[in-house]
What does this fold into?
Amino acid sequence: PLTSSLGRGYGSPIAGTTLAAATGVTAAGQFTIQVGTTTAVDVFTASGGQAIAGNAKALANAVNAAGISGVTATAASTVSAAGSTTNAVTVAGNATLTLNSINISVAVGTTGATNVANTLAAINQNSAATGVTAASNGGGGLTLTAADGRNVAVSVADGTSTGVDLASVGLGGV
It folds into this structure.
């Protein structure tokens, strides 16, 4: 099966096809589809020779745009591993959470539960830009979901706070 950088499967297995999701499809011959005895269609070539990102959303769009008779691709949700919170921030301030290349300011302090709540609210307020929503996982952390199948890439930096890491905002282990 096609697999995202999170290790989540997306799409159906296609015999003889292996994709490196981190790089996607970058050249002719890397991803072809043949239905029955019809001529195989090279998805890279059918997409105008443009690189296809290594996520379910981009791959499904490329397959559908190729117009292969009898083939329809859909992207399933990408769900990150459930996060946890174990650390408090040493100096309160605003941390910078980067989610799918979008910088989000999150107010953080010395109380883990407040940091997680603030992170959840900030992620959901920016979901239109990132394509990702957050939900409490019931264990003190957050679960991130990209409903359209795009990959979820997240990092955090101190900003005006000190001692922030992913665990201090409920995303430890994500």
Observations:
- The two ends are 22 Å apart (CA to CA).
- The mean pLDDT is 80.
- The chain has four helices and ten strands.
